[in-house]
Amino acid sequence: MIHRRGFNPIRLLIQVILVAVGLVMVFPLFWLVSTSLRPAPELLEIPPQLLPQHWTLDNYANAFAAAPFGTWLLNSLIFATISTMFILLTSLVGGYILAKFKFPGNNFLFILILATAIVPFEIYMLPVFLEVQALSLINTLPGLILPYVILSYGIFFMRQNVLASVPDELLDAARIDGLSETGIMIRLVSRLLAPAISALAIFAYLQSWTAFIWPLLVLNDQNLFPVQLGLAQFNSSVSVNYAVLSAGAVVAMAPTVIAFLVLRRRIIEGVTLTGFR
Amino acid sequence: MLQSKRLATLVAVVFLAGACGSSATPTPPPAASTAPSTAPSSSGAAGGSPASSAGDTGPGPESGPVALTLSSGYSEMDPVYKKAADAYHALHPNVTITVSSTDLRSYEQKLTIALPTKTSTDIVEHSLAFLTPFVDQNLLAPVPAWMQSFVTSGVFDKFVQAHVTYKGQVWAVPEFVSAVALYYNKDYLSAAGVQPPTTMDQIMAAAPLLTKYDSSGAVSRSGLSLRLSGQGSGVAEKFWLWLMQYGTPQAPLGLLAQNSAGKYSASYANDSGVKVLEMYVNGVNKPPLIDDTKIAADTKAFEQGLTAMFMRESNVIGDIAANAPTLNYGAVRLPTTTLHSTESFDVSANSPHQQTAWDFIRFLMDLPQQQSIATISGWVPARIDLDYSALLAQQPAWGAMLVKDPNYQAGYQTDYLIPEWDEIETKLATHLVATYTDKSLVDNPTGALQRLQQFADETNSILKAHNDFGQ
Amino acid sequence: MMASGTLGRGLHRMRSALPSIPPQRRRTYLFAYGFLAPIVVLFGFLRIVPILYTVFLGFFNWSLVDPNHTFVGLDNFINLLSDPNFQTAFLNTTIIALGTTVVSIALAFFVAAVVAYGGGRIGGLIEILFFLPVVTPLVPATLGWRSILDYQHGVLNAIFGIFGIPNQAWTTDPTLAIVSVIMISVWAQVGYNMIILLVGMRSIPRLYYEAAAVDGASTWKQFRHITFPLMIPILLFVTVITTIQAYNVFTQVFVLASDVQGAPGYLVPVLVYDIFQNGFRYFNFGYAAAEAVYLFLVVIVLMLLQFRLFNRPTD
Asked: Given an 8 Å threshold on Cβ–Cβ distance, is C174 in contact with B426?
């Protein structure tokens, strides 16, 4: 377990195997990109070739012509952005108050929030659907976003972070300085928690960008679809070949994959920090 | 303050990543406003006044701006509706109609949520059999009296009328119909010296002769594509189609039997059901094999020359014309009975423009619009007073689809008009998929019957739960 | 953290100057309740009420189309137990959940161990390669997999072919389709598990290993007696999270089975899909809710298991 200096053939071998397995991990993504860049007749080749013989971008043009991918991406963007902003707000405020204010029921509320954090959405999605229906929000963007404005785990996570990195003395000092409670929360606490907030933001954004079953239930107008749902429907339309479909798939996954490649340090740190995906 | 700056950058980058995706490529404009600007056909201009029908017409569209929506589960019907919407808009400039269409599976999923939540389009299109649960709950608008008398005026075949009649009342307006026929690849048949089969025995004899095997003995081209897997009810529908062939017009055989009181019970756990199940199980497990779960199936396989025969509706003709124009093929009627369904229109009870909606539906019933269905989409128009001679001359396979054969008339069945039918068929399909590959059922009629009895028990218990059961 | 450091020091000075100022209680309470109220309302409306309501719905014959709901007692729960669709779905989901959990954690543990103790310079690369699937949405990912698993034109069968193994029906054979779903789920999960396990391994003090090395313990013995026991709580955490997530498998199954005409797709019956069908296709909300309650019970058992094991005194 202790590093030994110098050349170690076994270690090298293990590393080579690991990189090979790692390449297998990204192969499905590579394969989608590669498929999306080849003309349709090359799809039928046996054995399949790793790279296109004739490179083409036609499949992307065809995908965008056959389905409203632009609208779908925009819907995803709206969905993920609004959801993330709400989750950050509710988690920060809720977490901060639960951590720093003693009032009857504080503990009970905290345990309740912690307990629901692990219950998957699929278990209670039926009543949520009925609620959204009662509000006449089926087939609307607000109806899509509503269940995603709050995140139990987010509140819990923020509470823990406030406890760990916001000392009481600091708050009292700010109060003496005449800062209002709201001002303390916005100016002081949110700054101290910046790393936790960015970790939570990444998580919330990913969560709504990849959401599938809720959009499937709540939306029926395809002009409101987020891109994942749009892609799934595109997949079942008869006239689509695999090259065009792959182009659509690349479009649907590119935003998160690119964001990851740009921000990978932060994202991986975020995961280790939140322990949640 | 380093941290918050980083956060801002992070958020900005995530936004940008999303925004790039959406702005890099032009957003296709919404569907309806850019419907292909095909000029209304010469006959289309005749528009509001039907050329030849004994049609009753209603009060016409509402005045003032009206935005109507129509959705369909058949993307091949999209151009038909859009063309009609344009023609209608030319006649009534105050009415704009937005047409949206998806594949049938997604459409059904959406419809079952949209109708009860009152978020569907104004006009919906499906078979009445699928829509009965919504009729029961007053989620669909009643068909106006003038439209009912149009539907019963003789422009539709009697059984097409029956397909849109539920609890003694017209509940939908027929748009197009489908009859399943057996398609065959002419080249493969002549190479094997086989005539187009017209009896079950001939079909079963031909299938192995038309099958090709690879060096290991596995099927590389199916002689008869059986439909062995898939989501939804399609698998059970194919099973039903084969089952029908063992009945006669006098004593029809279906998945359900109806008693004199109008109640239903499962009617496939019997000798005929066993014959059909054995045909599947033996066909994929016991030489001579005729099909395999692993290989391509259905329309696509037929177009690629990977199957010699399969059963499908008329829209395949249009699909082949588009995707495999050189394919040398024909179609024959099924031996004794076929499945015939009627896709029809209904108006949501929640629609604020029901009057205009019915008027547009009436417009779609006019001959020019009906005539364009076959040529554009490949489906058969519902009206019977159309001239098909040009179509038949162009592709003789149409002969197996057009439903005017007096000798065949009795041999049509359609989906049962009970709200739980979709559930029954879909669940049966799930069980069948798992059963077809079961080797223990090869040449095992007792086992097969036992299995069918289990499925029938489930079917009957679903019927019981809806108070529709009766032996 | 420079900012907070400065502030902290400033505040230290302040506090010594002004020993104790009682907080303006009323104002702060008003603030706390005022801001917390909307969050509690949202939390109740979107989490607590739906969870309780799911159980409640399970006792009714409840349909989305029919406004008349009848109380049926335990009927839904009892009928489910003898419903072959539910039995199959439950069995399949359990197989998928266990398969996904065991394989993804074993693989993640191996990778994390190599990166933590013998990774050298490739650690960063491995992190990227393994974590990319975690951030890839499942719909496009499954489409990529479906193409790889294709019977005739798929890459996997092409590779098998090199070794003389005949083509396998990854997406249409009922057994292999389950294997395929597990494969996709493992693929999507292993990077996350690896990162979490890596955190755990890196937090084990090097001192322990150094001491063991001095005592002449082999690499295997160090692993067996230091790494493994210390990692048990984290392994447990990852196991529970992964199992719960895997029990909710839906998207992979949904996309894998969507049948483009002629492209065969076998639908692996799983719990969430069955809930979806019963609730929204067959208009049987109560029955679907009862099914969700059973899924909930699985989650509760897993949670209790974790708490129990966590609280067990270490020996």
From this structure: no
- Quote the tokens at residue B387: 């001239």
- In the structure encoding, which two tokens stand for residue B218, read together? 């596995």
Nearest to A122 among C28, C129, C248 (CB): C248
**pLDDT tens track for A151-161:** 999 999 999 89
Q: Measured between alpha carbons, how far is B184 from B224 in angstroms, rounded to an integer?
A: 9
Predicted complex ipTM:
0.92
Instruction: Compute the distance between CA of residue B463 and CA of residue B264 in angstroms, rounded to an integer.
Output: 7
Residues of C in contact with B229 (CB under 8 A): 172, 259, 264-267
CA-CA-CA-CA dihedral for B4, B7, B11, B17, to nearest 10: 140
Q: Nearest-CA distance from A1 to chain C in Å? A: 5
Determine whether the interchain pair B139/C258 forms a contact, defined as Cβ–Cβ distance below 8 Å. Answer: no
Nearest to B13 among A221, A251, A259 (CB): A259
Q: Cβ of B113 and A217 within 8 Å?
A: yes
Residues of C with CB under 8 A from a CB of B: 1-3, 64-67, 84-85, 88, 151-152, 166-167, 169, 172-174, 257-267, 269, 277, 280-283
Q: Is C125 within 8 Å of A22 when comparing Cβ atoms?
A: yes
**Do residue C262 and residue B231 have CB atoms under 8 angstroms apart?**
no
Among the listed residues B334, B328, B289, B336, the one whose alpha carbon sits nearest the alpha carbon of residue B197: B334
Q: Is the pLDDT of residue C273 over 90?
A: yes
Place C63 in a pLDDT band, splitting at 50, 70 and 90. Answer: confident
Chain C residue with Cα closest to B423: C282
State residue B409's pLDDT score. 55
Phi-psi region of A139 (alpha: psi -120 to 50; beta: other; left: phi over 0): left
How high is the pLDDT of residue B340? Answer: 84
pLDDT of C3 > 50? The answer is no
pLDDT greater than 80 at residue B338: yes
C262/B298 touch (CB, cutoff 8 Å), yes or no:
yes
Q: Which CATH number fits domain B181-338+410-465: 3.40.190.10, 3.30.70.250, 1.10.10.10, 3.40.50.720?
A: 3.40.190.10
In this structure, which CATH number among 3.40.190.10, 3.40.50.720, 3.40.225.10, 3.40.50.300 belongs to the domain B43-179+341-404?
Answer: 3.40.190.10
The reply to whether A174 falls in a domain is yes
How far, in Å, CA of C128 to CA of C124, rounded? 6
For the full predicted model, state whether its pTM sits above 0.95. no
Q: Do C267 and B133 touch (CB under 8 A)?
A: no
Rounded-to-integer distance, Cα C146 and Cα C143, Å: 5
Reported as a single tens digit per residue, the pLDDT across C197-226 is 998 888 888 888 888 888 888 878 888 888
> Is residue B263 over pLDDT 60?
yes
